[in-house]
Amino acid sequence: MAGIDEVGRGAWAGPMTLAMVIRAVPEAFVSLDKRITDSKKVHLGVRPALARMIKSKAALTRFAWCRSEEIDLYGLTQSTISAVMYLLDKVPKIMQGDLMVCLDGRWNISHSIPVLSIIKGDSLVPVISEASILAKVARDRYMEIRGSAFPQYGWAQNKGYGTAHHKNALKQWGISPYHRKSYQPIQSLLATP
Predict the structure, then answer these.
(1) What does the alpha-carbon distance between residue 40 and residue 132 come to, in Å, rounded to a whole number?
(2) Dist CA 74 CA 32 (whole Å)
(3) Is-cis flag, bond preceding 185, omega within 30?
(4) Which of 58, 138, 154, 175 has a CA-to-CA distance to 25 between 20 and 30 Å?
């Protein structure tokens, strides 16, 4: 059993990050820890420890990153589908035989590995919750590192999402190479002479 989830869809800056966790049946539907749920519901201070535990118990973990440029060019839907296909293609042949992949959301993915889309799966299916936590920890770390080079945007705190501070920083400093030019308010800033 495997789970895939993404984080960063709505962020104004930085990548969208997808994680895949492959677990051994019958553990796939049993939570490793009662604190494991959708990453947005897990306390910030607890996520890294949970991520380490998830990695240590998983048969395999993989990540896919959709850069801002890709999202601007292809849109969120196509970028997500491409990243899911990338993750599925990275599953070793030896693991593919009996594998079922649970994916958070409403998707129509056609692959040789069966994919089951589950709305609110990141809260309902532990293996998807695990993927959500891994993706969140990885993306947050990425944004903290990038934030050290662009401290004016407050990415260490807002992780590239649209906060009031981030919006004010955009007005004062303009955009960075990591901003999504197809998103508002970045699009409006680019259109202003």
Answers:
(1) 9
(2) 36
(3) yes
(4) 138
Over the range 150-185, which residues count as b (16 or more CB within 10 Å of their CB) and which as e? Answer: beebbbeebbbbbeeebeebbeeeebbebbbebbee
Which domains, from first to last, does the chain contain? 2-147 (3.30.420.10)
Q: List, for residues 88-113, the tens digit of each pLDDT value.
A: 999 999 999 889 999 999 999 999 99
Closest CA to 137 of 30, 54, 31, 22: 54
HSE at residue 103, side-chain half, CA atoms within 13 A, is 22
C-alpha separations of 64 from 3, 46, 97, 150, 168 in Å: 13, 23, 22, 23, 31
